[in-house]
TrEMBL record:
InterPro entries: AlphaKG_dependent_hydroxylases, GBBH-like_N_sf, TauD-like_sf, TauD/TfdA-like. Pathway: Amine and polyamine biosynthesis; carnitine biosynthesis. Pfam families: TauD. One of its GO terms (biological process) is carnitine biosynthetic process. This is TauD/TfdA-like domain-containing protein. Its cofactor is Fe(2+). Keywords: Carnitine biosynthesis, Dioxygenase, Iron, Metal-binding, Oxidoreductase. GO terms for molecular function: 2-oxoglutarate-dependent dioxygenase activity; metal ion binding. It comes from Rotaria sordida. It comes from the Eukaryota. Residues 178-418 form the TauD/TfdA-like domain.
């Protein structure tokens, strides 16, 4: 009798030990939610206090300032292993599964642990859960601080870095050149390139040797964006060209592939040979032109933000078509900043709006004002893209163009590639976390 009792006790102890281990593991993971922000206040403890609760919100005092959090938001943000898959890091339920009447349990359902962890025992299960159970959520004070304001959220995502608008005199004072080997093999130099590309919209990579090295430059940032032009494409003067870029004609200021639903965010152009007479490249910061317009003529700015312009490509058995405004704002940003520009006269289709209305003429006047700004040579950076140089620029910000050249005077051969802006933003965040992690959030 004694031996079986001992065996049962040992088994029970083992089971409890596993349960405690699971509970501790879950608690440990919850206390480490948002690991990237855990060190923000390593030496400066955030003081968290519970002020009040009602049916829809909790009011917390974080370092002597009040902030409100909706119960549904908090339940939807739970990071425990029952809500977030440990491997994929993805949510295991839908926001719509949360009852509208969810709140902490009465009396002991909410408290502050160790002065910097909010603990909540919820009064209801999710709507799709078959078995009713009490769910526990934990929120670090650093997490609550991050989600206390839109400014902190923006900063925590490394989305608060400002753009630097430029004209010719300004950009000529900036060294935007990076050596190819530094770009490819030095993380610090690569991060410098990413910062310049974000701030100014373009950079130049020097000493890029080899016909397909441009692919390696792209893949340092992300996957190559394939289009009907191919994985890469050659900009050369050819007979029966399917694009004006493949001629020796002047190619005016434009952006590429605006007839796509999602035009590529970054363009790479590598100069393999360039010994012709003429053919200079020039670039314009369209964000600066738009900001001048916003400041000097708000009405013109607003109509460029709303009036539809259609772009298309109908050639070589292809028919692409998309309509979009000239200026697109990030309406969710703190400063209503410009998100991207759409400007590509060579690929404009006939307007598909009601041009009999007065808004059309208002748009044309605003469009001409914008045109005057970007065509002003004081706003243009012009240069010959030398052999073994590669320019990288933001296709939704920087307008690019080419002067006419004499095809009989030599050869001009550029190889191009695209990647998406999502890939660029991903690398910028990752390397900023590595080299310049956020030091503080504001309260």
């Amino acid at each position: 009798m004694l031996i079986p009792r001992i065996i049962r006790l040992l088994n029970n102890f083992s089971i409890r030990q596993k349960q405690y281990s699971i509970q501790f593991s879950s608690l440990y993971r919850q206390i480490n939610i948002e690991n990237s922000f855990n060190n923000i206040h390593k030496n400066n403890q955030i003081q968290l206090e519970l002020k009040s609760v009602n049916d829809t919100h909790v009011t917390l005092i974080i370092n002597n300032k009040e902030y409100k959090y909706d119960w549904i938001f908090l339940r939807d943000s739970c990071q425990c292993h029952q809500c977030i898959d440990l491997s994929t890091k993805q949510k295991l339920y839908n926001t719509t599964d949360i009852p509208l009447t969810i709140s902490p349990q009465q009396q002991t359902g909410i408290k502050i642990l160790n002065n910097n962890i909010l603990e909540i025992y919820w009064n209801q299960s999710l709507l799709n859960e078959k078995n009713s159970h009490i769910h526990r959520s934990l929120y670090l004070s650093t997490w609550l601080q991050t989600y206390s304001t839109l400014k902190n959220i923006t900063r925590s995502r490394y989305n608060d870095r400002p753009f630097i608008n430029w004209n010719r005199n300004h950009i000529q004072q900036i060294n935007l050149h990076i050596q190819c080997n530094d770009y490819l093999y030095s993380d610090q130099k690569f991060y410098t390139a990413l910062k310049y590309l974000h701030d100014y919209g373009l950079i130049f990579i020097d000493n890029v040797q080899g016909e397909f090295t441009v692919e390696r430059l792209v893949e340092r940032i992300g996957e190559i964006r394939h289009t009907f032009y191919g994985k890469t494409w050659d900009v050369r003067n050819i007979q029966q060209a399917i694009n004006v870029a493949y001629t020796s004609q002047r190619l005016g200021l434009h952006m590429d592939l605006l007839y796509f639903e999602a035009p590529p965010g970054l363009q790479f152009l590598h100069s393999l040979v360039n010994n012709v007479n003429g053919g200079a490249s020039y670039y314009v910061d369209a964000f600066r032109a738009a900001e001048i317009l916003r400041q000097n003529d708000p009405e013109a700015f607003e109509i460029l933000c709303s009036y539809p312009v259609t772009f298309h490509y109908r050639n070589a058995g292809r028919h692409y078509h998309f309509t979009r405004p000239t200026i697109v704002l990030n309406r969710y940003s703190l400063d209503n900043r410009i998100d991207h520009i759409n400007y590509s006269p060579p690929f404009q289709a006939p307007f598909e709006s009601d041009t009999s209305k007065s808004e059309f003429r208002k748009f044309i006047r605003a469009f001409q004002y914008f045109r005057d700004l970007i065509e002003d040579q004081n706003n243009q950076l012009e240069l010959i893209l030398e052999k073994d140089q590669c320019v990288i620029f933001q296709n939704r910000r920087i307008l690019h163009a080419r002067r006419e050249f004499d095809p009989l005077s030599g050869e001009r051969w550029l190889k191009g590639c695209y990647t998406d802006l999502d890939n660029f933003k991903d690398r910028l965040r990752i390397f900023q976390e590595k080299f310049e992690p956020i030091s503080a959030l504001e309260l």
